[in-house]
Amino acid sequence: MSVTTTRSAAEPEVLPSDPLEKLPVVLLSLCVGLGAVLYWVPLRGVTPRDATGLGLISVLPLPTLIGAAVLTLTFVATLAQRRSSRLLLGAQVVLVVVALHTLAQIMEPMARFPTVWQHAGFIEFITRTGSIGTNLDARFSWPAFFAFVGFVAKAVGVTDLDPVFKWSPVIIQLLYLLPLAMIVRVMKANWRAKWFAVWLFPVANWVGQDYLAPQAFGYLVYLFFLAILLTWFRPAVLRTRIGGRRGKGDEPGKLYSFFFGPKTTGEEPVREVGLWERRFLVVLLVVLLLVGTAAHQLTPYLLIASSAALALVGRNELRGLPIIGGVIYLAWISFMAYGYWRYDPGGTLFAGGGNPLQTLLESTSGRIGFGDPDLGKIQRLRIVIVLVVMALTVIGLLRRRFRGIDDRVALILLIVPISSFGLQSYGGEIALRTYLFMLPGAVFLAAYAFYPDPKPVPVVRSAPRRQRLRRWGPTLMASTFAVLLMGGFLVVRYGNEAFEQVRPGELRALDAMLDDAKGKPITLVWVSGEVVTEPAAASATPQGPWGYRNFESFSYTATHFAQEPYRTGLLQTPPVAPTKQEARDRRPNVAEIISAMQEEPGSYLYSSRMNDTYQVLNFGLAPDWNQRLVGEVKASGKFKEVYAGPDASVYKLVEQVGEPAERPTPTGLIVGISNWTPAGLIYLPVLIGVLTARELRRIRLSPDQWTRLRPYTVVAFPLFVGFVAIVVERFLTLKGTQ
Predict the structure, then answer these.
(1) 543 or 253, which is more confident?
(2) How big is the chain by its Cα radius of gyration, in Å?
(3) Taking burial as the number of CB atoms within 10 A of a residue's CB, which of 62, 122, 467, 482 is the most buried?
(4) pTM for the whole thing?
(5) How confident is the model at residue 246 (pLDDT cuts 50, 70, 90)?
(6) 327/321 Cα distance (integer angstroms)
(7) Burial group, residue 155, by CB count within 10 angstroms (0-12, 13-18, 19+)
(8) 462-489 burial: b if 16+ Cβ within 10 Å, else e
(9) Angstrom distance (rounded) from CA 32 to CA 591
């Protein structure tokens, strides 16, 4: 007898699930695990101590490089799937950030970069004295970041910041992903392009400005500023140029239409929030302008320029925000940074400014010296990577343009930082900083070079050959580029590791000087192989973690090798570099070292492996020059050993006549008082308040009602003119004063 079962018509039919549907994700997850094992496990026991001029890549084991390639190819393969696996993609991005930006940390005992330890000295000084030393270092004129770190450490009872210094790069890189995720949601692109852009950001960020420093904090402020501005303060109706000649409506040609014809906006519609939320966000943007200005020199300019450019192209409705930022920037430079510019405003605030081409050359090809050829290869590879990334941005922009998409936000984020070359050379590093600030726009346009369609390309199992090529072609090209970029990162990011790794002995040598001096001022004498063509540009301090504590106790004196005939050749046009043998034959002069130390009571001769390697790789000295120098120092009988270790040594003269000269007393904050300064201190908060109130009023009005903002403008205009006049008066009357 047969049994018949019935099912309600309202009950949905349950289809059997495909047991192989999740198999690709499982296989990709296993490949991610395999790549991580290959990457990390072989690093056990590997140290960068013997790194050559090629940097860390010279000591990395082959399985680690294979693991990096597996992680890269697995990510691109995940992008080739029919559906987005958000959890797997997100885990891969985080894993890549951790893998790339902890590579040196897990092999080195101390935090890398000597600059980190100098910043540690600033933090220690501010925490210990409760003041700043604007006459000790220019960076004390922007002390907000150092003071904040010191305050937090003291508040939570942390006395040892070494782990924070060591692991801050990976933490900062992970924090960068938060505002980047907000910017990703703004862009109108398919999920493959968005995820590829997010992956490109940490891999293309080889600049090395992510350690515990004001520039890293300022960059985080910059990203959050852009994220908030683009997410909530773009106009509700995004406009594009209408095709044809103005007023006629005819079609003049395909080329004109390509550039100026009607286009689809490259951004998603603005996210709507309540009025009170928008008010809070406006105030938050002003706070970010204040924080960014107080923390770093370059960041406020990029904040102002980006918001102004976005307003000009119709992607920022807070048109008064750049004015608020400009007022804050001028106020900080004029009042808070007075100790920085008071002696020579032109030579400090605008050093290298007004000559963008020279600044560009100084920051790129000018950094390629005549030292170790491998180090020169690293510098050239950095330039190549930048050129390749920029070429892809052009390709991505054109491919989107051919599809009728107007990516003006990404384009603005790409090109605005280029204007930084007109400011100053920034110690020869402005090209690196400019590339860093171009990345938020560059990674999206570069991703569009492979995935330009605003919607994912449909995947059909039995599709024509052309459609299959459309699917797999971008995957193959993206895989090739991603692997090459990953390899390039490992080379250039850690290309200077031979002279950027800080060793414990170098810190102990500085401690030994402080202990031996017993509170007296110290003159640190060091030997430099630099060929000095411009005395003002010569290195004033050794390569090393100098001043990591008791910052104010130290002064520095460089003893240079013989300059001729090398300097004469380098001053010719074009410069004639010394031959390799000539550079290696240069020898230090112990008599000159003794003479310099006798002129400075309280002197110590400081020798370190970091500075030794730096001189060899950058100036072509013989690899054993420091060993010979130490031998001659010991043989002279004129020196007494204060500290000796495998990585550093310290010596002082056996007979030292006189007492060390007193160091200048740290001055603290210097504002400078002119006749009009009191009025400026009154005008400033009122002006910022009126301008902020103007923007708070603006967000309640539609664009056709902005004429109601005129009362705020009437009040703000005379305040603004008066404030600018006060800034000019301060520069004219206070420059050159003591």
Answers:
(1) 543
(2) 29
(3) 122
(4) 0.89
(5) very low
(6) 10
(7) exposed
(8) eeeeeeeeebeebbeebbebbeebbbbb
(9) 60
Closest Cα to residue 319, out of 685, 688, 698?
Answer: 698
CA distance 385 to 486: 11
Supply angle C-alpha 183, 187, 188, rounded to 5. Answer: 160
3-state secondary structure of 642: strand
Residue 408: how many CA atoms within 13 Å on its side-chain side? Answer: 19
- Give whole-number Cα distances, 686 to 690, 715, 717, 723, in Å: 6, 10, 12, 10
Which residues lie below 8 Å from residue 463, measured CB to CB, with a gap of 6+? Answer: 471
Q: Which residue has the tokens 């004639």?
A: 576
Cα 553 off chain centre by? 30
Q: Which uninterrupted H or E stretch holds 523?
A: strand 522-528
The tokens 């201190």 sit on which residue?
681
Compute the distance between CA of residue 640 and CA of residue 606 in angstroms, rounded to an integer.
12
- Give the single-character DSSP code of 227: H
Sign of CA dihedral 562, 568, 574, 579: negative
Given a contact cutoff of 8 angstroms between Cβ atoms, the answer to whether 378 and 491 are in contact is yes
Give the helix ranges, DSSP H, for 130-161: 144-155
- Phi (first) and psi of residue 527, to 5 degrees: -105, 135
Exposed / middle / buried, residue 428 (Cβ in 10 Å: 0-12, 13-18, 19+): middle
Q: CA nearest 503: which of 2, 57, 84, 112?
A: 112
Residues 6 or more apart whose CB falls under 8 angstroms from that of 225 comprise: 285, 288, 289, 292, 303, 306, 307
Provide the 10 A C-beta neighbour count for residue 88.
18
In a 10 Å sphere around its CB, with 0-12 CB exposed, 13-18 middle and 19+ buried, how is residue 130 labelled?
exposed
Residue 335 is classified by DSSP as: I
pLDDT mean over 486-513: 91
Q: How confident is the model at residue 245 (pLDDT cuts 50, 70, 90)?
A: very low
**Main-chain phi, psi angles of 652, to 5 degrees:** -130, 160
Average pLDDT over residues 200-227: 92
CB of 592 closer than 8 Å to CB of 561: no
CB-count burial class (<10 Å; 0-12, 13-18, 19+) for 373? exposed
Between 368 and 589, residue with greater pLDDT: 589
Distance between CA atoms of 606 and 597, rounded to whole angstroms? Answer: 11
**Residue range 307-317, pLDDT digits in tens:** 999 999 989 99
Alpha helices (H) along 187-238: 191-204, 214-232
Helix, strand, coil percentages (3-state) for the chain, rounded to 5, are: 60, 5, 35
SS3 668: strand
Q: Which two tokens stand for residue 151?
A: 């305050």
Q: How many CB atoms lie within 10 A of CB 570?
A: 17
Q: What percent of the chain has pLDDT over 90?
A: 41
**Cα separation values, 343 from 338, 347, 708, 734, Å:** 9, 9, 45, 9
Whole-number Å distance between alpha carbons of 565 and 582: 9
Q: How far apart are CA 602 and CA 516, in angstroms?
A: 10
Residues 6+ away with beta carbon under 8 Å from 550: 121, 124, 514
Residue 528 bridge partners (DSSP): 560
> For residue 581, with 0-12 CB atoms within 10 Å meaning exposed, 13-18 middle and 19 or more buried, which class applies?
exposed
Structure tokens at 395: 């390709």
